[in-house]
Design goal:
The chain contains 15 helices and 27 strands. The chain has about 675 residues and is α+β, with helices and mostly antiparallel strands. Among the domains are: about 280 residues; about 80 residues. Strands 1, 2, 3, 4, 5, 6, 16, 17, 20 and 21 form a 10-stranded mixed β-sheet that branches. A 4-stranded antiparallel β-sheet has the order 9-15-11-12, with no helix packed on it. It starts with 12 loop residues before the first helix and ends in a 6-residue tail after the last helix.
């Protein structure tokens, strides 16, 4: 395999190689579409006056390191002061905005941290603002996307991050939001809140409450315990308030173990107006894209023409936020302009967020066992308009932006865990309880799933850490980083040049690659020492006006069909899955002592093949051994190299990432010559 280095930005490798590859393998050339200008309401660049950006520090990024052709970057750090008019229709959907304190102009004020990394020589940038939604205040691009490289910097992106989450404390250099507390004409708002605690051990522990208790009267609160999510709730009396923010709980003992679920429902007070976070992302990015100066008359730090396009990326919590941002109509700014022309929600599944609610809890996310009933995960799930098979509602993630003509081009990227743990099939199928079928995927949307990966992943072929922890199996070491890296560059080309992106690879109910989770449907082999119970993060229509929430009908959620080795046939199959030495899954189960048999957090499974035929026969493993699969180490590496090349040709891997994978395969000890 030939490895090419990343050169001048805008010349992305997939398109540089496309003509030659087309001649070699007979695939059609990409079709160049008309450029996406990103706005539908004229070319006005007048400032809205809603944001003032204060830059507190400027410095050279990484002590002046030069990033290829682009050269050094400048790091800007500061904060934005914003004002929102509660009577503006653009802000009407923000819960409790009308109950927040107002300034002399009748507006609601907020403050969010901002960080910008921009090329020192703006002419060498690629013209695209890459906005990453921070995850619990932290940028993830450096680790999740760039890893040991400087890809996004060498490509010339202007990076922007801003705070949005108002319930997290200052911690080092994280980016937070300072949001107002809602009141009833100055009097505290009080309502029932529900906090959940899992994996607290079997002794006495202290739980921190999301909101302060409105009263310390224990008779006004309830604590329950259950071993598994589906079990009935049993009252617990061995608890007490330590203060308005903490409770002390003594574990009740058997039959409950360390993984039991404790649910605390209590009267809370002082909800923040968390939905302002969406408006802050909208207004800060709109200013940086379109305005010459801020509300205080200070110049835009990006200059007049440094960026012509904008892409938003969100990973995990941030990917869910990005889907919700689009769903709630915030991709349209106060002048009716489209803010982000491209969007990349990563490992979000079909979920949204618990943000724009009274007593919001943005840090929580639904798993099968933990925090299962979190808000924000109800219909709609898919990007296009569809009908909810259980309630009859008609809606879609892109419904509002379609109405305002402000939808971005979307690359939705999940790992296999998101199919099992985040009801990912609902992004692609109609969720009918009986016989789910594929939905139409809009032309501006691509769906990708990386087979054999957990929620995130280590991006290697074999685990560096062989301990399963509280899970039954060692976590799968595969990851989606390499695929995300390639797709990000091609999303940029799709937005800025109109190039047709790689086709969706997510799985399909109609094609039979997404199926019911029964073993008879998936075909998962009976591997010695491996429990398969088909458990996934099921979803029901849920009434959140009650505490605890009341559940109704169940959606038809599907999971990947597998090959004879137990590896998914759906999605993008990395070389390690296509030329395997193990079974890699998107699910794992909890071990004894930790709510045994429930899904294990966000993990997948790594189940190595027997090395020899003798080992396979002795254990009764139905999967062929390594020595039976590959005649030699050289044959294994050759097959692996070919699988990597295929993914490069189709745009799912960069050549340098494929080469790194092949090098890792060459270094493995397979026990064969």
């Amino acid at each position: 395999m030939t490895c090419f280095s990343v050169g001048k930005p805008r010349a992305h490798l997939g398109w540089l190689l496309a003509p030659a590859l087309a001649l070699l393998v007979g695939i059609p050339l990409p079709v160049r579409a008309a450029p996406d200008t990103g706005a539908h309401a004229g070319d006005s660049r007048a400032g809205s006056g809603s944001v003032e950006l204060v830059i507190e520090s400027r410095s050279e990024l990484n002590a002046g390191q030069a990033f290829g052709y682009v050269g050094p970057y400048e790091r800007l750090r500061g904060y934005a002061l914003g004002e929102l008019d509660p009577d503006d229709p653009a802000n009407a959907g923000i819960v409790n905005l009308d109950k927040a304190p107002r300034n002399a102009d009748g507006n609601v004020e907020y403050r969010v941290d901002v960080e910008i990394h921009k090329p020192l020589d703006a002419t060498k940038g690629n013209g695209t603002l890459l906005y990453e939604v921070v995850n619990r205040g932290r940028p993830l691009i450096p680790g999740f996307v760039n890893g040991d490289t400087s890809l996004t910097y060498e490509q010339g992106f202007t990076h922007v991050w801003s705070g949005w989450q108002g319930d997290i404390p200052r911690d080092g250099e994280n980016l937070i939001a300072s949001l107002p507390i809602a009141t009833n004409d100055g009097e505290p708002i009080v309502g029932l809140n529900r906090d959940e605690f899992v994996d607290q051990g079997t002794g006495t522990w202290v739980g921190t409450l999301t909101y302060p208790a409105a009263t310390l009267d224990p008779t006004r609160a309830t604590l329950t315990v259950r071993e598994r999510e589906r079990d009935p709730r049993v009252p617990v009396t061995s608890w007490r308030y330590l203060n308005e923010r903490e409770i002390e709980v003594t574990h009740p003992g058997a039959p409950y173990d360390s993984g039991a679920i404790f649910e605390f429902i209590y009267p809370a007070r002082d909800p923040i107006v968390a939905g302002i976070g969406f408006a802050a992302t909208r207004d800060v990015t709109s200013f940086l894209r379109f305005d010459d100066e801020d509300g205080a008359g200070m110049p835009n730090p990006l200059g007049r023409d440094a960026v012509q396009h904008a892409i938003a990326m969100g990973i995990s919590q941030s990917g869910r936020y990005l889907r919700d941002f689009l769903y709630q109509g915030f991709n349209e700014d106060l002048q009716g302009r489209r803010i982000f022309q491209g969007a990349m929600p990563i490992i979000a599944g079909s979920r949204k967020t618990w943000v724009n609610y009274e007593f919001a809890q943005p840090g929580r996310w639904s798993k099968q066992h933990e925090e299962h009933l979190q808000r924000g995960d109800q219909f709609p799930f898919a990007y296009g308009i569809s009908r909810d098979p259980l309630t009859g509602s008609v809606d879609g993630i892109l419904a509002k932006c379609r109405a305002s003509r402000t939808c971005p081009k979307i690359m939705h990227v999940d790992g296999e865990y998101e199919i099992w743990g985040a009801r990912g099939s609902l992004v692609r199928t109609n969720g009918r309880p009986r016989g789910p079928r594929d939905l139409h995927v809009p032309r501006n949307v691509r769906l990708y799933m990386v087979a054999g990966t957990p929620h995130g992943g280590a991006n290697t072929i074999v685990p560096a850490e062989p301990s399963p922890g509280i899970c039954q199996q060692v976590n799968t070491p595969l990851g989606s980083r390499a695929v995300v890296r390639s797709l990000l560059l091609q999303l940029d080309d799709w937005v800025t040049e109109g190039w047709t992106p790689p086709e969706s690879r997510y799985g399909s109910a109609d094609a039979g690659t997404l199926v019911r989770s029964y073993r008879a449907s998936t075909g998962f082999p009976k591997i010695p020492g491996v429990t398969y119970n088909g458990l996934f993060n099921y979803l029901r229509v849920t009434d959140y006006t009650k505490q605890p929430p009341a559940e109704g009908g169940m959606y038809g959620v599907l999971v990947p069909k597998v090959d004879r080795d137990g590896n998914s046939v759906a999605g993008i199959r990395l070389p390690a899955v296509e030329v395997p030495i193990a079974t890699y899954t998107g699910w794992n189960l909890r071990a004894p002592g930790h709510a045994e048999g429930e899904m294990c957090r966000s993990s997948g499974s790594y189940i190595p093949f027997p090395r020899t035929r003798e080992e396979r026969l002795a254990s009764g493993d139905p999967r062929l051994s390594v020595e039976e699969r590959y005649r030699s180490k050289a044959d294994y590496v050759l097959d692996f190299d070919r699988a990597a090349d295929r993914l490069v040709r189709h745009g799912y891997l960069l050549p340098e990432d494929a080469a790194a994978m092949v090098a890792e395969a060459e270094a493995l000890d397979l026990g064969i010559e």
